Amino acid sequence: MSSRSPDEFRIGVRPYDRGAGTGDEPEDPHELLHRARRLTVHGHPGAGSAWERAATALRRAGGALTPGDHADALDATALDCRGAARPAAGPLFFRAADLHERAGQRGKALVSRARALVAGPGPGATACARLAELCERASALHRVGQAGAAETATVRLLHGRIRADLLGTAPDPAAEAAALREDLARLIAFAAPHRADPAVARVLADTRALLGRITAPDDPAAAEAQLRAALDDHRAGGRTWPATEHHLLLSAVLRATGAHEEAAALLRAALVPQVTDTPLRAADRARLCLALARTVAGSGEQGRTARIAEEAEEAAGAADAAAETAAAPEEEPAEELKEREEPEEPEEIAQEGGELLALLAEAVRHTEGPARDVRVGALARLLLGVAHAERGGWDRALALLEQALPGFQDDGDTAGRVRTRAWLAECLLHLGEPDRAAREYALAAAAARPWGDPRPGAALSRRAEHVLGLAGTRGPVPEIRGTGGTVYADAKAGTGPSAEGGAPDGGARGAWPGLRALPEPFGPPERYQVDVYGEVGGAGPQAATAPGTRVQGCE
Q: How many CB atoms within 10 Å of residue 331?
């Protein structure tokens, strides 16, 4: 019995490199079919490509896939659907479920239907209720031997994932999270006796990762233990390919507890997989680079804070010693005073900045191409643009920010649009275009105005009005440094310290401090949701309209 053409599951966007299986790959269609089945049993990320090659070879030989094989092929292909290909996943899973039913594989059919619900446009109460029904059916089938432990556990895990996505809508999120943790613990107890099955070991790993995710906001230490166990189960199940989501979640917990060096080491190891025939997805590599850049920046800031505290303590001791001496200090030469006023950047800070730029540039590079993830690409360009702007590279920053803006518009993330426009404005101001800068600040203010917190919109409006006063200038705004702060020698803009404080127009080295207080893009508004860095609940103030980022994948 044959099924339809393999063209049905060739969606034209391949998230994985085709390197897996090349070189010593068999040419016989039946050997290719055996290989695809084996990769599917082990949950290998190259299974989708293997099925495509097997189906093509069979068709050329005058054969076709059976309904059961075709269903497995569709499942594997749908699991590959990320980024631009993600909308194709749901229909592929539903078609796979129908084919599993035709092949008499009722447990697999339930898994495909559950995956289709999770792969939908967003979590909802209806999908959650339907998943609860599928869990009951899976348990009933398992009791009569028509569904395996792996299939039953997978359906229960997928129900847990969609419940986790809906925690923010619960009347009492903390109580619902506690109930979900109990259910996940029961799922682990159900699956553990069957862990010798690689498919069950995979479910165990992913269940522990989900448990760690919803534990992180309330008990970081317990979350860390679960996430480490998830990585152990991942390896124990024979999964030699990268566990990107697990690494991101664990590194985020480590950052939150101050273990920046261990988090950085974990992410660096994830970026260099030990097995070369299972390459990282481009979007996964980009996310790991972004998370490592965040870790490096946080570690540097932590170190600078410690150095500042140490220097302050030393200065206080020196001041006490100076107060005890009656002799007046000798006047220092002018050259020494100049050196102290303009200290050179420490080498370690320069190295940190170089690594940060390199990581962000690599993230940008891996978000290009047909399988790009729009939101990760927009975020990577924004962060790289900001990094260049903070180092005075206004031209380069402007180009990156202009590339980032359409991505935030397509994704509908207001926080991303606001932050990008504000940094665009700052670049334009430093490049001598205050009229365009004022317009970008005004657009950013308009986008931020509907937020529940009125402060960002108000600050941006004041900034736009201030910059508008500079619109008659042509060329960079001259600055004069004085004891009252930075003032601007421009007759039309007026002279005197800015009402905004600090260095409002940045000058050659600085930017408006208010830029860093704006909400971060793609920050999850709910306590138990995950952002693109793997952080649960976000890491800073969030815009009221910023959507959460669901962990991708339906495996």
A: 7
Scanning 193-281, the segments in alpha helix (DSSP H) are 198-215, 220-236, 244-256, 260-271
In angstroms, the CA 522 to CA 520 distance is 7
364-380 confidence digits (pLDDT tens): 999 987 656 788 999 99
pLDDT digits (tens, 9 = 90+) for 270-289: 998 766 567 788 888 999 99
CB 87 within 8 A of CB 55: no
Q: What share of the chain is helix, strand, coil (3-state, %, to 5)?
A: 65, 0, 35
User: E strands within 391-514?
Assistant: 479-482, 485-488
pLDDT in tens, 134-192: 999 999 999 999 999 999 999 999 999 999 999 989 999 999 999 999 999 999 999 99
pLDDT tens, position by position, 223-262: 999 999 999 999 888 788 889 999 999 999 999 999 999 9
b vs e for 180-214, b when ≥16 Cβ sit within 10 Å of the residue's Cβ?
A: bbeebeebbebbeebbebebbbbbbbbbbbbbbbb
Q: Tokens for 229?
A: 């166990």
Separation of alpha carbons 459 and 503, rounded Å: 15
Total Cβ atoms within 10 A of residue 409:
15
For the purposes of burial, counting CB atoms within 10 Å of the CB of 446, is it exposed (0-12), middle (13-18) or buried (19 or more)?
Answer: middle
- Scan for tokens 């991708």, then name that residue: 552
Strands (E), 48-143: none
